[in-house]
Design brief:
It is a single chain. The protein has 225 residues and is of the alpha+beta class. It has helices at 2-10, 185-190, 196-205, 213-224; strands at residues 27-30, 36-39, 46-47, 57-61, 68-73, 78-83, 86-90, 99-101, 106-114, 120-130, 134-139, 142-145, 160-164, 168-173, 178-180. The longest helix has 12 residues, at 213-224. The model is unreliable at 9-34 (pLDDT under 50).
């Protein structure tokens, strides 16, 4: 347990009480140190997973030398850490240190971002690319779909399911806000002012799409040169 609390102190995370969410089928309880211990689901059929990668992996925070075991809960948008046989979840603040999942080479950052023109929220994004002027992120998300129990014997019982949603891409240009990547190539290119025509030509010449992660990365490499 000491390593977990040392980590929490290191990244200055503030624990808060969590609400019990019925659809998650997870109970939380506080131990004497104030951290939140997660307990396994106890009822009902359930398919899928709350995690993109369910296994715990080696994690570093902010480039520190100490390594921890952790994983990202994409349904709850929380990081979980494992200490011995117990799993702990914590609640970060915007600006906490980046969390690198070493074997996946994935960096998660807890930031404020805009899901549309008016609505913003705080959460974890995967940092895909970081240049002098442009940073590219993606949001991973798991959705919960409630099942149903057979009522007549002729219809089938359908279990509850966790389903992976499509990744959503976000971008930060210069010192601006983190906003959703436009679907329109023209709207995207307009974000870069005088580079607009060059970017549109590059996208057209290479038949790139703003829906493909590999294509978006190549476009951003070009812009960040």
């Amino acid at each position: 347990m000491k390593t977990i609390f040392a980590f929490l102190s290191l990244v200055t995370l503030q624990f808060v009480y969590s609400q019990r969410i019925h659809s998650e089928r997870i109970n939380t309880g506080f131990n004497k140190n104030g951290s939140i211990e997660l307990k396994a689901p106890t009822k009902g059929e359930l398919e899928g997973s709350m995690y993109i990668y369910e296994e715990f992996s080696a994690i570093k925070a902010g480039g520190e030398l100490q390594v921890f075991l952790g994983r990202y809960n994409a349904f709850k948008d929380k990081m979980e850490f494992k200490d011995k046989d117990k799993i702990y979840e914590y609640y970060p603040s915007v600006g906490d240190k980046d969390i690198l999942i070493i074997n996946l080479n994935k960096t998660y950052v807890y930031v404020n971002y805009y899901i549309d023109d008016k609505k913003d929220e705080n959460g974890y994004l995967v940092k895909l690319q970081s240049g002098d002027n442009v940073v590219l992120y993606k949001k991973e998300k798991i959705k919960f779909k409630e099942g149903r129990v057979s009522q007549t014997g002729y219809d089938k019982t359908v279990p509850d399911k966790y389903i992976k949603a499509n990744d959503v891409f976000y971008i930060k240009v210069n010192d601006g806000n983190i906003v959703k990547l436009p679907n329109s190539k023209k709207e995207f290119a307009k974000m870069f002012g005088e580079k607009e025509k060059d970017i549109l030509k590059f996208i057209k010449d290479n038949s790139y799409s703003l829906n493909e992660e590999a294509h978006i990365n190549q476009i951003l490499f070009f812009i960040n040169k």
